[in-house]
């Protein structure tokens, strides 16, 4: 298969992976049964080595210090590498409600800019707001999904595309409520900066 033919396939695989992560986050935050969760007992799951780009301090700010090995993975082929890092709350450490962080990195891409543009388009599905982040990678966008408490930061840098998805729900007397979007953004941005800085 030539490089030109293989390029669109690589882009399609990247977008499929990002969509799978996005769909998982949406399903997770819409489940009313998990909103009252205070997290799970601390795990010692091993994550792919790339996940070590994210510091414990950044995870603590995001209230997701518990590594989730089952939702993390790394795949490599002749067309590039795809890595997923996942964390959720640690019981007794990260507060109440629900917080979830996933970072997906597609690297060694031949058409990284196209993959970035399509990832941004997919993140903008539904009722969203978008803004550009000027000082991150070659190009970066922050997308806030209004209806389910999710912030996505997508970054193109060189031959890689990184997507940070940080989501949450809070509980009050009336039930499930969306967290402060500014809080989600403030937590997600350091995660994106740290991952991209290590690429």
Overview of the structural elements:
This protein has 199 residues and is of the alpha+beta class. The chain has one domain. It contains 4 helices and 9 strands, in the order H-H-E-E-E-E-H-E-E-E-E-E-H. It has helices at residues 3-30, 56-62, 112-123, 181-197; strands at 66-67, 73-77, 80-88, 98-107, 128-132, 139-145, 150-157, 160-172, 175-177. Strands 1, 2, 3, 4, 5, 6, 7, 8 and 9 form a 9-stranded antiparallel β-sheet that branches. Helix 1 (3-30) packs parallel to helix 3 and helix 2 (56-62) runs antiparallel to helix 4. The two termini are 28 Å apart.
Quick rundown:
This protein is α+β, with helices and mostly antiparallel strands. Helices cover 32% and strands 31% of the residues. Strands 1, 2, 3, 4, 5, 6, 7, 8 and 9 form a nine-stranded antiparallel beta sheet that branches.
Secondary structure layout plus pairing:
Blueprint: H1 3-30, H2 56-62, E1 66-67, E2 73-77, E3 80-88, E4 98-107, H3 112-123, E5 128-132, E6 139-145, E7 150-157, E8 160-172, E9 175-177, H4 181-197
Antiparallel strand pairs: 1-3, 2-3, 3-4, 4-8, 5-6, 6-7, 7-8, 8-9
Helix pairs in contact: 1-3, 2-4
Tag the structure with descriptive keywords.
single chain; 199 residues; alpha+beta; 9-stranded antiparallel β-sheet; 4 helices; globular; disordered N terminus; DUF3558 domain-containing protein
Helix tally equals: 4
Structural class: alpha+beta
Would you identify the regions where 5 or more consecutive residues have pLDDT less than 50? Answer: 1-6, 9-13, 19-35
- Name the average pLDDT: 86
Largest sheet: 9 strands, antiparallel
Q: How many independent structural domains? A: 1
- Could you tell me the number of beta strands? 9
- Summarize the amount of helix as a percent range: 25-40%
């Amino acid at each position: 298969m030539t490089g030109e033919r293989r390029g669109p396939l690589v882009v399609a695989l990247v977008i499929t992976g990002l969509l799978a992560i996005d769909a998982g986050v949406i399903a997770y935050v819409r489940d009313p049964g998990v909103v009252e969760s205070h997290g799970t007992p601390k795990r010692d799951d091993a994550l792919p080595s790339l996940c070590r780009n994210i510091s414990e301090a950044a995870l603590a700010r995001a209230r997701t210090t518990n590594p989730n090995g089952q939702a993390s993975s790394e795949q490599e082929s002749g067309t590039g590498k795809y890595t997923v890092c996942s964390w959720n709350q640690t019981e007794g450490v990260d507060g109440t409600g629900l917080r979830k962080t996933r970072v997906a990195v597609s690297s060694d891409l031949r058409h990284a800019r196209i993959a970035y543009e399509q990832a941004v388009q997919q993140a903008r599905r539904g009722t969203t707001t978008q803004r550009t982040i000027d000082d991150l990678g070659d190009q970066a966008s922050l997308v806030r999904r209004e209806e389910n408490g999710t912030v996505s930061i997508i970054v193109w840098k060189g031959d890689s595309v990184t997507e940070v998805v940080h989501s949450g729900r809070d509980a009050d007397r009336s039930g499930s409520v969306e967290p402060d979007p500014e809080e989600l953004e403030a937590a997600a941005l350091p995660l994106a900066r740290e991952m991209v800085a290590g690429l």
